[in-house]
Amino acid sequence: MAAAAAAADTSEASTAGLALAEANINWERLDKTRFHVIGAVLFTAQQGALHPTAVVKTRMQVAEGGLAHMSGFAVFRRILRSDGIPGVFRGFGTSAVGALPGRVLALTSLEVSKEMTLKYSERFEMSEASRIALANGVAGLVSSVCSGSYFVPLDVICQRLMVQGLPGMPTYRGPFGVINKVVRAEGIRGLYRGFGITMLTQSPASALWWSAYGGAQHAIWRSLGYGNDSQTKPSQSELVVVQATAGTIAGACSSIITTPIDTIKTRLQVMDNYGSGRPSVMKTTRLLLDEDGWRGFYRGFGPRFLNMSLWGTSMIVTYELIKRLSVKSE
Question: How far is 212 from 10, CA to CA, in rounded Å?
Fold first, then answer.
């Protein structure tokens, strides 16, 4: 949800020169209750549509042997044959229900910190574009830390549910079974496996995503004949298509660069066969190199590429729809 809110801000800032005033729906113009309710419904639906790709990606990153070298579609078919439809939706219930308060936390922390930074930066001689960039950067960092504190344990729980049934992986009696086993073995800190690497990589990954998104959107608008001096307003359909296309390109670029980090993080969060001692980033990296060499860092790349590309497209379109449906009555 934090990423979605940042999408709106980036979209509004980048299209300002295109005279798209009707696209600039500020936080103050939104009915907050309606916004959160509609957002919960639509983003849960979006999450459900993309969840199978996350399951396939996670299994490919964690599995040893033949499964890791199969294509994403082959792994998907194998899961369907062995577990049916429920198999590709493992962990979805926990993820969908658990993510609701996290989305509210992420959105609130982002908006509040953004407004505070905008007000504080008024005392400095800065251009409007610089103030917006600074506010969004600070807001993204604050939101990342706040939401990460909530979402990392949820990630650990959901990913363990996704990979149960694989050779060497334990089985659990639902999400509370995961919590019980992890806490008994490692304490609360076990639920925060991968927190450090998530925090260290999430901010630059987000910057990469938005950089690619902004560049792609700018290039597309230029190719369509819209510029800073253009008096013609793009239609709503053009706006949606351009934003969706830019989101797809950004997701694709980001997935290429961030997949190795995601592979290490996923294995760190779900695997226990390290012998003695607590799992660490270095142990996880060495184990992955021993198993599959450097190509092992791109396990699950196909499903993740598809997931992030579709996520970028659907997130932009969904968020813009949520905003329009949530505008306060005049």
Answer: 12
Exposed, middle or buried: residue 185 (CB in 10 Å: 0-12, 13-18, 19+)? Answer: exposed
Assigned domain for 251 exists: yes
Check if the beta carbon of residue 163 is closer than 8 Å to that of residue 59. Answer: yes
Range of the domain at 231: 1-325
Residues in CB range of 36: below 8 A, 6 or more apart: 103, 104, 107
Domain count, the chain: 1
Structural domain includes residue 101: yes
Collapsing DSSP to helix, strand or coil, 68 comes out as helix
Residue with tokens 């934003």: 243
In a domain, 330, yes or no: no
pLDDT of the chain, 330 residues: tens digit per residue: 444 444 444 444 443 444 443 444 667 777 888 888 888 888 888 888 888 888 887 778 776 555 556 777 888 888 888 888 888 888 888 878 878 888 888 777 777 777 787 788 888 887 655 666 666 667 777 777 787 788 888 888 888 888 777 777 778 888 888 888 889 888 888 888 878 877 776 766 776 776 677 677 777 877 887 765 556 777 778 888 888 888 888 788 878 887 888 788 777 777 665 555 667 778 778 877 887 777 777 877 777 777 777 777 887 788 778 877 888 876
- CATH assignment at residue 157: 1.50.40.10
- CA-wise closest residue to 95 among 178, 36, 167: 178
Residue 82 lies in a domain: yes
Distance CA 160, CA 174 (A): 10
Structure pTM?
A: 0.58
